[in-house]
Amino acid sequence: MTSHPGTLYGLGVGPGDPELLTLKAVRLLQEADVIAYPAPMEGASMARSIAAPHIPEGRTEIAIRMPMVEARFPAQDVYDKAAAEIAAHLDDGRSVAVLCEGDPFFYGSFMYLFGRLASDHRTVVVPGVSALTATAAAAGAPLAARNDVLTVLPGPLEEEALVERLARAEAVAIIKVGRHLAKVKRALAATGLDHGAHYISHASMAQQRVVALGDLHEDTAPYFSMILAHRRGDAWS
Amino acid sequence: MTSHPGTLYGLGVGPGDPELLTLKAVRLLQEADVIAYPAPMEGASMARSIAAPHIPEGRTEIAIRMPMVEARFPAQDVYDKAAAEIAAHLDDGRSVAVLCEGDPFFYGSFMYLFGRLASDHRTVVVPGVSALTATAAAAGAPLAARNDVLTVLPGPLEEEALVERLARAEAVAIIKVGRHLAKVKRALAATGLDHGAHYISHASMAQQRVVALGDLHEDTAPYFSMILAHRRGDAWS
Fold first, then answer.
1. How far apart are CA B109 and CA B115, in angstroms?
2. Which residue in B has a C-alpha nearest to residue A156's C-alpha?
3. Full-prediction pTM beyond 0.90?
4. Fold of B131-230
5. A8-126 classified as CATH 3.40.1390.10
6. For residue A216, what is the DSSP state?
7. Is B82 helix (H, G, I), strand (E, B) or coil?
8. Mutate to test the interface with A, among B73, B116, B122, B132 (most CBs of A within 10 A)
9. How would you write the pLDDT of chain A (237 residues) with one tens digit per residue?
């Protein structure tokens, strides 16, 4: 007996506040046969924690556990194994929702599963509120407006590359700041973008922190942190 | 008798699919005393249409009506008048939710009210799913991944500026395409970014359309349209 194959959902669960889930994500959490999510080697998954109030009891769950080594991309064999496990559910006719912090296609690890599964399985991506806009909301300053050019720069880039990009930038969001904070601060200062810049960690979460960059004295930051800057300085705030 | 002043909410209602509202937006729509939204001179407001299933009957509403002239920024006197009307409600202790297509701080017109009201009134911005990530979901291709630099470029920029920015770009989203489509296509071709690029209009809405840029023969596009391109071409899809 062959069954109708199941659908793979990439489900954006938003930046951290469980109230920033979309109605669509909530519905699909209730409908999906299997729920999968990235998780550290031990302990709780952030994506699952965000969605937890809406995950029915007793649902089949797959924790995709991998070493969380910053600035190194995850072991491909972890994704090979997870994709095989998910594919088996899909082939048996079960739908699988993969929970993604923020938005699945905005620097998300969902791409690793998408690349392995989307060509052979019906795949639907449900966009979520990204950390990018949640961070601007937390800072109380527009990310970009009118005909601004907006540049999103990952903190792990080399200092020279950061400076080269920042020199021409108008509105800027620097993501994945983490242990690159000191380098990022130097690059912003070198390009005149430090004035009016804000550092934001854990946007929309209980531990949210917003600091003017000039008042930030640490040299490292948590993973969930971002810096927003604008050529106009803090004319917004 | 003085009353406690009301809170101003900038409420992202997402890209168009009413199911992409957040739980928080839905709650605040039910709680707000007054609901305001941008609207054309005649006819329905897009932001209100998206939120309509959640707006209680008989709620006080403010339609901020303005001429929708593309590529010209709206008359400031319209916002002066709307801000005064909203401020009067806030001063009388009523909360006001301003509905914003997508996200309030991602190229949103909310900034015009924010600039006039936030310094004197308690203001909370509720992020929403932006057209940026909804468009990537529609195209079925990651917007940006790993350590990509992502550049968001408004279509109204001069062709020379577009070419200059695109020449150095990796992941690209071109917004506000509209009547600038022919110019944008030329700039993408001149910088080798046309291969694998996608054109997407009305992402997440019933009339959503996704076309490979090479198969698009029009020279103008609707307001709600975007082009996604990547230096890697369509290696994603």
1. 10
2. B147
3. yes
4. 3.30.950
5. no
6. -
7. helix
8. B132
9. 456 899 999 999 999 999 999 999 999 999 999 999 999 999 999 999 999 999 999 999 999 998 866 545 668 889 999 999 999 999 999 999 999 999 999 999 999 999 999 999 999 999 999 999 999 999 999 999 999 999 999 999 999 999 999 999 999 999 999 999 999 999 999 999 999 899 999 999 999 999 999 999 998 898 889 999 999 875 444
